[in-house]
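Ticket 4471: requesting a sanity check on a complex prediction with calcium ion. Repro inputs:
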Amino acid sequence: MSNFKDKVVYQIYPKSFKDSNNDGIGDLKGITSKLDYLKLLGIDYIWITPFFISPQNDNGYDITDYYHIDPIYGTMDDLDELIKEADNRNIGLMFDMVFNHTSTTHEWFQKALNGEQKYKNYYFFKKPVNGGMPTNWESKFGGPVWEYVEKFDEYYLHLFDKTQADLNWENPEVRAELAKILNFWIDKGVKGFRFDVINLISKNAFEDDNQGIGKKFYTDGNKVNQYLNELNNITFGKYNDMITVGEMSATTIENCVNYTYPGNHELDMTFNFHHLKVDYQNKEKWTVMDFDFQELKELFNNWQVGMQIGHGWNALFWNCHDQPRSLSRFGNDTKCHDESAKMLATAIHMQRGTPYIYQGEEIGMTNNYFTDIHQYRDVESINYYHILKNQGTNENDIHKILQAKSRDNARSPMQWNKDGGFSENTPWMEMNPNHTKINVENNLNNPNSIFHYYQNLIQLRKKYKVISEGSYIPMEKDHPYIYAYKRQYRGDELIVINNFYDVDTSIEIEYINDYKILTSNYDNHQLNKHLSIRPYETIVLYKSE
Ligand code: TEU
Ligand code: CA
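Returned structure tokens:
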């Protein structure tokens, strides 16, 4: 466990970050070439999504070989150089460990298909039940979770794509193999791990789900804490400078406290996604709806307070490679582009937890608004295009849904300059045409840019312990436009005020003259007890005893 409270993590989706050899696909050398940019931003860690050998059906979350780099991303020498150059800049690398499943092209699965019992036991092969599938569960990417293998007259389990077979963690040999992979990368100089859907690894029972799609039988399962504690003890937990984060699907506060309570020796922090479902109509992702602001505030307040009471720790984020761009979703990506980007950044970075910045967020990248299915690359988006089509949804409505919800909104290439600057070749996915204006170069040249605002937020975290260590107290719970909270630490206090709407509004602040402004996305403030707040305004007030 390292001190991760005053750290900031930057997430890189390597395929779309920077292409060094002009084949249209981002790569490791591309990342190395941009380390100075990341150093300038001020981040401490880079989480890189998987670049291991993979058929790329799910862009690398389907791994064939956890020890080798996919040639599209470079070589082991390129990786060694990246680790060394990052280390020279005091930046640690976090690798993404996809341990719930492997690709069906993995040697273990291939041996299983050849009938080797040892390897069949690495996965879940089950006999048909009443002549059909073992359970009625549905895959996260649509369709059933069971794939039939004729020669065994058995099905194997895949919670995600049918080329991503779930590993059987009950089998101690599987756990030993996974620990070996972690230790291999630790020896290479890796400083942390992000664990993919790690709360799905313990399957409680294989029964039909009469109310849902099967989640309750494998989410936060009975043995997940035991498995994580075991991994911790024999791998990263032996070092005092490792940072770990678990991606938790459909989890609870109570479970995330257990995963991150320091005395449990499991993980440093967890991602949860509840705040990113407030624009799901009837809990259904593939719908279009304005976000429910009151629900968003309630979720933030409950998670912030709940994790604090339990001494757990949150990973703070709006964006990742699985989510549409927050600026298009919770802000205003046209008229109030810069203001709302800065407001959203503040709302998250001042919370109790460790902030994660997803590539392009720091320059205000937006959704892509694709209009043709051929512009999409993501397996989930393409599957749901067909599912919605089969349900009779018209083409136009399907596009509106994908424009709002597709993961590809986050996966278009990084916008380095007015010409793109990602690659000299046609990129694997189209670049957003707004790169002519929204790009790194413009951000670096403008002292008031979103980039410089993020840079300042990171510097403030390093300077003020109340940001990294303070307690969290909700404010203005019922305000229709404002999300506000206090942070307190040993006589220091912050008041963080965020207007989520394109409206003028106000709030009352007692003893406002005791405070100074730490940061804001507007200037010319009049600090009155009755504080006027402009559209998408954010203000952080600070006082010290
Ligand atoms: O994602 C887990 C997950 O359940 C969701 O985020 C999912 O991708 C989608 O949003 C459901 O609507 C992780 C990875 O981050 C993702 O990229 C992988 O596709 C997935 O696991 C499988 O490994
Ligand atoms: Ca390349």
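Notes from triage: Residues 19-21, 23, 25, 27 surround calcium ion (ligand 2) (CB under 6 Å). Leaving this open until the requester confirms.
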